[in-house]
Design goal:
The protein is an alpha/beta fold. 40% of the residues lie in helices and 11% in strands. The strands form three sheets. A five-stranded parallel sheet has the order 2-3-6-1-7.
Length: 427
């Protein structure tokens, strides 16, 4: 029996999306096979060449609403940067246009410890996003049964208790799969329902905010606008959040944002803005940039600057992580310091890596990074040692520079800052 297929979403005033292709059903082309984690292949975002700065467009009613929302958020939470504040503001507004989006960006609100403002930010989001759905102790089955053509906004606090340890992550693999699949439209889960066990496909597409201590799983972080919270320093103060006093004003603002965005659904669905990043980062940030373009004023400039800077920061953080591209970046620096020699012996390469006082390699394991550990790290990138000829004419076990070129290009791109023009007021 074929699983049931939702009809195209065609309510008045809504963006219409084509019916998803069903493999083997007449009249439909086969759907491209997704990546193993349910989404597009992982890629490294790279900024586009800088363009000349153009004057800001005239502000609109929408830009005034975004200004007001930004001020409301800043009352209760100190974000790590102005760019992060702009991103949160645009993400909240984007939740009110979910039927227009191809991708549903996640908002990953993470911090290194308790009392960094993560839960307080979620409090403010709960009162301003479209149809908030708190997922505390909520099963994945209940979540995807709650997602419709006008999806709710999922809010997950204490996400570290779901994914924090390997055992927790294994137990909640279905939740991770739901969050990964729901980043892109037309990614369904199939379950049998009723006494007759009829297969039924449930939608997963919905925007989601997740707050927790430490990073979330890589596949979720890669689909997220990442907000890295910090504890307030001495002298920094915020307004306490009190539901009875503060909720009415936030709800009034939420309703005005919804009223502004509702007539713009079709226009938003048709927009293809110029983005300062590529690949999955562009997919994730596109709804925020579209909202900024609809609002006009300074917001298109602020959105693109926030996108470029925050994506670059995450790329650098990934490079610094020893288990990812950090080893590639550090080896590239060694080859550059050695005047781009053709080959380095394993011993010489390890010596230079361990000499870097800012790197993790001198303290890797009991005696520092060794040949076996180096080989294990590089094997993930299909780079293996071999017999190499050195500059002095001798042959030893080592690595040739040309074996790293493809991995450097893919995982350690040179990232250039986007020229956003001279500093201006934020309106």
């Amino acid at each position: 029996m074929q699983p049931t297929t939702p009809e195209p979403y065609s309510a008045p005033g809504k963006a219409v999306w084509p019916t998803v292709a069903v493999p083997g059903r007449p009249g439909h082309a086969p759907e491209a096979a997704p990546a193993a984690d349910g989404g597009a292949p992982d890629t490294v975002a790279v900024n586009q060449p800088a363009e000349e700065a153009v004057p800001d467009a005239e502000p609109t009613y929408g830009s005034e609403l975004l200004n007001e929302l930004r001020s409301q958020v800043a009352q209760f939470v100190i974000l790590p940067s102005q760019q992060a504040l702009h991103a949160v503001t645009l993400w909240v507004a984007a939740t009110h246009l979910q039927p227009a989006w191809q991708h549903a960006p996640r908002l990953a609100v993470v911090g290194p410890a308790k009392r960094c403002g993560k839960s307080r930010l979620l409090d403010v989001l709960t009162e301003t996003v479209h149809e908030p759905m708190l997922t505390i102790n909520t099963t994945p089955a209940a979540i995807f049964r709650s997602i419709t053509d006008e999806p709710p906004t999922l809010l997950v606090d204490e996400a570290d208790t779901i994914f924090g340890t390997p055992k927790q992550a294994e137990k909640n693999e279905e939740m991770r799969g739901l969050l990964n699949a729901g980043h892109q439209r037309n990614r369904y889960v199939t379950r049998v329902v009723g006494n007759d066990h009829i297969p039924h496909r449930f939608a997963t597409f919905a925007m989601a905010a997740l707050a927790g201590i430490g990073d979330l799983p890589d596949t979720i972080m890669d689909r997220s606008v990442v907000i890295r919270m910090r504890r307030r320093a001495e002298g920094e103060s915020v307004k306490p959040f009190r539901s009875r006093r503060d909720t009415p004003a936030l709800h009034d603002l939420r309703d005005r944002i919804a009223a502004w965005t509702r007539p713009l659904l079709d226009e938003a669905a048709d927009m293809e803005p110029v983005m300062p990043v590529e690949d999955r980062a562009a997919d994730t940030w596109e709804p925020l940039v579209i909202v900024a373009d609809l609002a006009a004023g300074p917001w298109p400039r602020l959105a693109r600057a926030a996108c470029a800077q925050m994506v670059r920061a995450e790329a650098e953080a990934e490079e610094d992580h020893p288990s990812s591209a950090r080893i590639l970046a550090d080896i590239r620096r060694v080859f550059v310091a050695q005047r781009e020699v053709d080959s380095l012996s394993t011993d010489e390469l390890l010596h230079h890596l361990r000499q870097d006082l800012e790197g993790p390699w001198a303290e890797w394991g009991r005696k520092g990074l060794g040949p076996r550990e180096l080989g294990s790290l590089l094997r993930a990138f299909d780079i293996r040692p071999g017999n190499v000829r050195l500059a002095d004419g001798t042959q030893r076990k080592g690595y040739t520079r040309n074996k790293f070129l493809d991995a450097w290009r893919r995982y350690c791109p040179t990232v250039h800052p986007v020229d956003t023009g001279p500093a201006r007021s934020e309106g």
